[in-house]
User: Fold this.
Amino acid sequence: MSEQDVLYQAAEGVATITLNRPKKYNALNSTVVKTLRELFRRAEEDRSVRVVVLTGAEEKAFAAGADISEFTNKNSSAVRPLTENGQELCRYIESMSKPVIAAINGFALGGGCEIAMACDIRYASSNARFGQPEINLGIMPGFGGTARLPRLVGLGIAKELVYTGEQIAADEAFRLGLVNKVFESVLALREGTMKLAKTLATKPGVAIKLAKQSLNKSWELPLEKSLKFEVDAFCQTFDTKDKEEGVDAFLSKRTPSFSHK
Ligand code: COA
Assistant:
């Protein structure tokens, strides 16, 4: 892989990971998936990074899915590492302590849509298109799409999207709850994403981490267990310096300055 197939930049508490194979619509070959995993770990381990943004270079694609050129001459055992690594990447993004924003600047198909669904917040430009087109290749989603899509849009809509392989536009994705916000242009998307990222970077890191874990548990656990998890997480925030700072700032009528401890 060219080192430039995925770019990494960190500034002002925000790490930006950019898929950069625009001529291949940022198709996710196995090396790109591995590199993404390494770069997300780098962002997780860098204490100066508070928020991660994942996006695609230029204006055509976020990612048009797994790289189909890697599918030829592969049987079930040969393809297993691809799906396992893709799923592991998505699970890592979901389990990171920091918020991850997908800035979807074009096609988000197949694995591209699936990685976006593992991010915490999805912002899109109006030219973005979403879908799980695997069925048209005689295969099915393998980066967690059958698990996350129904949770986000409901089982019936997920089945229709997966069975037909049809693409949907950004405004339809917004209507279905697949994206949080749609911007009129890619430039507006990039500005809106950085504004959100910088806002989140000022929030107390431990509380963000615990809130993310608690919200994720609500997807995965029965209500009683997820409520119990929330009790424990809520209590933990009371042992942080940030809670002292936040409460004191409110009572003193000043803006809090969190140390993420
Ligand atoms: N894997 C490998 N290459 C891909 C790709 C993918 N998932 N998606 C796009 N590309 C490549 C094309 O082969 C083409 O490369 P080339 O110029 O060297 O021939 C280039 O990206 C542009 O794609 P093209 O199909 O010419 O553009 P388009 O605007 O006509 O169509 C898409 C765009 C995204 C609709 C179309 O490329 C597509 O359907 N891609 C596959 C999507 C998919 O099935 N994803 C799930 C994979 S499991």
